[in-house]
Amino acid sequence: MSAVLHYIYDPLCGWCYGAEPLAAAARDVEGLELRMHAGGLWPEPTSLPDETRRYIRDADGRVAALSGQPYGKAYLDGLILDPSLVLHSPPTIAAVLAAESLEPGCGFDMLRGIQHAHYEDGGHVVRTETLLDIAERLGFDREAFAEALVSVPVDEHIHETRKLMAQVGARGFPTFVLEIDGQLFGVPHHRFASSPAAFAAWLREVIDARSGKPMKV
């Protein structure tokens, strides 16, 4: 039996940052592959008006309350209120794909690095130098990562993710879809926003039930 958890996300999505502990817990579920699909929340470089930046800041407060994810002063009182802030998903998605291409399994580590650099450290993560700094901290060779960053098929990846989103009826980010032996199942991840361990246990139970093993009551 094969089991895959499809994780539809964007590196610059606050609710995806909130779901990071859930995705991390899913990685530890034995026999389950976490497969990541980035959808391009900000397809073009976007500068936000002050009202929108403050709205996002308020939404981040809700994310923090539900998930327990840390938000740094450099982000809350700096980056998100900075008129020079530009949001652009493709460079960050390229970094995740580059990490995965150089070291299979490390795409998620790069995603986490980007998210924490953005939401905790207040870094401009759409900038190449910032992404290279994150990669270097993760142990990647800076020059090799820079080469991978410009060669990965970002547009094709986003296009395929959008096709998957249409197929499963995903309405936004994040979305989790469980695939067991080719069958797709919706995942009510919102129920587990504050409990990654319960999320992992739920996934394990569903997989066991579909494989003929009894679910725990």
List keywords for this structure.
Glutaredoxin, 6 strands, four-stranded mixed β-sheet, 10 helices, single chain, two-stranded antiparallel sheet, globular
Outline the structure in words.
This protein has 217 residues and is of the alpha+beta class. The chain has one domain (3-210): Glutaredoxin (3-Layer(aba) Sandwich). Helices cover 51% and strands 13% of the residues. It contains ten helices and six strands. It has helices spanning 14-18, 20-27, 50-67, 73-76, 89-102, 107-119, 128-137, 142-149, 154-168, 196-210, and strands at 3-9, 32-38, 46-47, 86-87, 175-180, 183-186. It has a four-stranded mixed beta sheet. Helix 2 crosses helix 10 (196-210), helix 5 (89-102) runs antiparallel to helix 6 and helix 5 runs parallel beside helix 7 (128-137). It is globular. 36% of the residues are buried.
Summed up:
This protein has 217 residues and is an alpha+beta fold.
CATH architecture verdict:
3-Layer(aba) Sandwich
The Cα radius of gyration reads 17 Å
State the low-pLDDT regions, or none.
none
CATH topology: Glutaredoxin
Structural class: alpha+beta
Order of secondary-structure elements: EHHEEHHEHHHHHEEH
Number of helices: 10
**Termini gap:** 23 Å
Roughly what fraction of the amino acids lie in strands?
Answer: 5-15%
Helix content: 40-55%
Strand order of the largest sheet: 2-1-5-6
**Shape, principal axes of CA atoms:** globular
Report the sheet with the most strands, covering strand number, pairing sense and barrel closure: 4 strands, mixed
* Level-1 CATH class name: Alpha Beta
